[in-house]
Amino acid sequence: MAIQNWSDDIVVVDLQDDPQFTDELSALMDTLEEEPRNVVLNFGAVGFVNSSNIAKLLRLRKVMITIERELVLCDVNTQVWGVLMVTGLDKIFDYTNDVATALAMLQIGKSDEDET
């Protein structure tokens, strides 16, 4: 399984092209229902996305908003980025260049919340 528990509050998902993409997001959503966590989606091995993938991403985003957790996409290649831009999804997701930056972003956000 490509879902890795990075910490008590963060999971990292190393996505692949379909059919694994769909299976991994479905498994992730099942996991989040049991234990809400922040999520980093690593697109490093994803070469393309289709309409089904986009629908899954939007469902995941809705789940993340409902459970009040953060979602960060990272390592998105040019082809996938083009699809996200054309569909307007580049404006509704948070992005970073790599997993380490995404993890740092979530950790900084968490420490900011702890201070308030």
Q: What is this entry, summarized?
A:
This protein has 116 residues and is α/β, with parallel strands linked by helices. It has four helices and five strands.
In CATH terms, what is the fold-level topology? Transcription Regulator spoIIAA
Q: Between the first and last Cα atoms, what is the distance in angstroms?
A: 36 Å
If you compute it from the alpha carbons, what radius of gyration comes out, rounded to the nearest whole angstrom? 13 Å
Structural class: alpha/beta
Helix coverage percent of residues? Answer: 40-55%
Domain count, please report it. 1
Number of helices: 4
Strands ordered across the widest β-sheet? 1-2-3-4-5
List the helices and strands and how they pair.
Blueprint (H helix, E strand, L loop, with lengths): L2 E3 L4 E7 L3 H15 L3 E8 L5 H16 L4 E4 L3 H9 L7 E3 L2 H17 L1
Parallel strand pairs: 2-3, 3-4, 4-5
Antiparallel strand pairs: 1-2
Helix pairs in contact: 1-2
Structure commentary:
With 116 residues, the chain is α/β, with parallel strands linked by helices. The chain has one domain (3-115): Transcription Regulator spoIIAA (2-Layer Sandwich), CATH 3.30.750. It has helices spanning 20-34, 51-66, 78-86, 99-115; strands at 3-5, 10-16, 38-45, 71-74, 94-96. A five-stranded mixed beta sheet has the order 1-2-3-4-5, sandwiched between helices. The radius of gyration is 13 Å and the shape is globular.
